[in-house]
Amino acid sequence: MDKNVDERIVISVRNLSKAYGKRQILTNISFDVYKSETLVIIGKSGTGKSQILRHIIGLIKPDKGDILIYGKSIVKASKKELEDLRKKMGMVFQENALFDFMTVEENIAFPLREALHLDEEEIEKRINMTLEMVDLNPEDVRKKSPAELSGGMKKRVAIARTIAMEPEILLYDEPTTGLDPVTSDKINTIIRSMQTKLNVTSIVVTHDMKSANKIADRIIYIDKTSEDTGAKIMFIGTPETLAIEADKNLRLKAFIEGVYDPEAIVLKKKEYEEKYSEKIDLDVFKK
User: Fold this and answer.
1) What dihedral angle (degrees, nearest 10) is formed by the CA atoms of 196, 200, 205, 211?
2) Which CATH number goes with the domain that contains 233?
3) Same domain, yes or no, for 216 and 233?
4) Residue 73, domain member (yes or no)
5) N or C terminus of the chain with fewer C-beta within 10 Å?
6) Three-class SS of residue 197?
7) Structurally, how many domains does the chain consist of?
8) Nearest-angstrom CA–CA distance, 133 and 159
9) Core vs surface per residue 114-144: b (16+ CB within 10 A) or e
10) Residue 49 is part of which domain span?
11) 56 neighbors 65 (Cβ within 8 angstroms)
12) Residue 274: inside a domain
């Protein structure tokens, strides 16, 4: 590692830009993620949040910029270097990516045999340990197929399979999408507990503000200023400073509060205040 690099930084994204044909997806995205931190990336659908994760894990190469993992470039890495860096990372995909034809225990065991070449005794130990860590009883779920599990249970099995590999970095892509509020809260609690139990560094992509506020040490908000430009970072900071910044930034406030047409809403608010000479909450004008 370069002696000038802050050793607390685990992931460093520098001026990341990506386009597909004429469609610009990301523009000059730069941020650092610190050891044991949970960083949450929020933004509207289609702004490229998941693309950032895929760049970090090396599934996509940027048009411009670089991604450093412990000071080593993912973009410039050789095949062997990329494999070594990926072993430090685990990703929980939005659709869980469980094998339907395998049982829960087989899903967790598969990468332990194929990638880590562990002996059966260690595999058995990790299956039980990781299922318990995500609050599942091994005896109840080990022999079940994914089809026999609820959405929340599938998500927990996907997390168990990922942490069984003992990664130093965890990447979550929309972990609560499609789940009911109670199950979502359970998943958020598990994500937060991974930071404490495993001392991992995490990036979570979500559009769920309740999730973001519960699990984040810091939050990044990305957005496009027009359809012709790629998404840029509009905010980076703590959940507490996010609320303060939202009062100054209409687009950010609109996203946080779920307003469909922020310009129209704020215009109505302004007209009301001018007409009646009194301040009023933006909530009044939501449709």
Assistant:
1) 0
2) 3.40.50.300
3) yes
4) yes
5) C
6) helix
7) 2
8) 9
9) eeeebeeeebeebbbebbebbebebeebbee
10) 1-86+207-239
11) no
12) yes
